[in-house]
Amino acid sequence: MDGNHSHSDEQSNDVARRDGRWRDSHGEAEATARGHTVLAKLTTHLVDTYSKCGLPRHEQPKTARRLLTKNSQVVANNGWDNCDNNIVLRVRDLLDVHTRSGVAKTFVVLDLLGQGTFGQVFRCQDVATKAVVAIKIIRNHPSYYKQALVEVQVSQLVQSASNVVIHCDLKPENILLTGQDKLHSMAHPSQVVPSIKLVDFGSACYENETVFSYIQSRFYRSPEVLLGLPYCGAIDMWSLGCVR
């Protein structure tokens, strides 16, 4: 009787040990599954999340890429800007841009077109449409930012006849010829000539708000500006004459 009871206890203990091991392994499996679920939620579409932050980002290159910004030592703006408050970019860097309408676009940087007092102009390509565009990035400083807002406003109103805008910096670099919207020569109707586009309204102002005195590039500067006299839209005609 006692022998049977002892044998029954051993069987019960063995079953209990197996049950305990099953519960331990089952609990570990559940914990692992929960961990995988959390990991998946935290990392799925992570690149898309980063891209929505709207900051320029550097790709991780396999080989060194050409620097486009002349002063390439970053000292400000969390490692993005140099001592001149210009963003430091390389070939094939990506720019995430949010338009005024709220549309997010990504551009790949191809080359540097030029730089001046207000910032840098880069030749870029829209990743989605493959269209090649010029993007002007203003120096990261309040005064240049305010002037950039004026440039945007002037650019929107430049074709309005009711607003007399002075460009203030007409020179060959700011006069572009485009193959789009071709015109026909009046002297030779069969001859097609390119249309003219004016760019860089960073120094522009309204004719009734001539607040700047140091304007126009040296070789295209009008007598009024040189002598510090009041000026109007005629200074653009002087510059245009110098271009011809």
Automatic annotation (TrEMBL):
Organism: Aphanomyces astaci
Similarity section: Belongs to the protein kinase superfamily.
Superkingdom, natural source: Eukaryota
Keyword Transferase: yes
GO molecular function term, any single one: protein tyrosine kinase activity
GO cellular component: cytoplasm
Entry-linked InterPro entries: Kinase-like_dom_sf (IPR011009), Prot_kinase_dom (IPR000719), Protein_kinase_ATP_BS (IPR017441), Ser/Thr_kinase_AS (IPR008271), Ser_Thr_dual-spec_kinase (IPR050494)
Organism classification: Eukaryota, Sar, Stramenopiles, Oomycota, Saprolegniomycetes
Protein name per Swiss-Prot or TrEMBL: Protein kinase domain-containing protein
Segments forming domain Protein kinase: 1-244
Binding site for ATP: 136
Basic and acidic residues biased stretches: 1-33
Alphabetic keyword roster: ATP-binding, Kinase, Nucleotide-binding, Serine/threonine-protein kinase, Transferase
Region (Disordered), start-end ranges: 1-34
